[in-house]
Amino acid sequence: MLHSxxxxxxxxxxxxxxxxxxxxxxxxGVQDTIDDLLALVQKAVDTGYxxxxxxxxxxxxxxxxxxxxxxxxxxxxxxxxxxxxxxKEDIEILRAFDRFNLAMIEQPLFHTDIIEHTELQNRIETxxxxxxxxxxxxxxxxxxxxxACRVVNVKPGRVGGLYNSVQIHNVARDAGxxxxxxxxxxRYHTC
Length: 191
Prior knowledge:
Elements lengths: L1 H6 L3 H4 L10 E4 L5 H14 L3 E5 L6 H10 L4 E5 L6 H10 L8 E2 L7 H10 L4 E3 L6 H10 L4 E3 L2 H4 L2 H14 L2 E3 L3 E3 L2 E2 L1
Parallel strand pairs: 1-2, 2-3, 3-4, 4-5, 5-6, 6-7
Antiparallel strand pairs: 1-9, 8-9
Helix pairs in contact: 3-4, 5-6, 7-9
């Protein structure tokens, strides 16, 4: 940020951005009931959020996705698994996610299981998004080299700051991989 002040330019431009406006999406965790979740998703859709991230876990996954996709057949959804699944034990659940036309499945397996993420990506159609697995530009280059993901979630605090974030973004761009940055705007909504 100091560099952008010294240049007299906005940070978004110094970082290589093309537009100061960033599209935001809604983010919903596990709710008490599916009806509660559907009501929250409806509010997000009515507000105009272009994409919605849903947290999933064992027991709050397939039935939830069936209900959400049935109620919102054209909305862009992706799920965040928070490393909650195991390739050996949960492969059928993870394969079933393909039925829901998801934009991505974020961090389905344990964060150090890069090889298993590669195996999973080869066995499902939905793009895998790595999050906790990527702590540096090197981590991301290696993940791409072995085919562990087709999307990356770049968290500046996790990857060593804005400089490394821009490097990861550029590697993703050059590889034709989607990169996105979460940012909390208010409870349950992220950019």
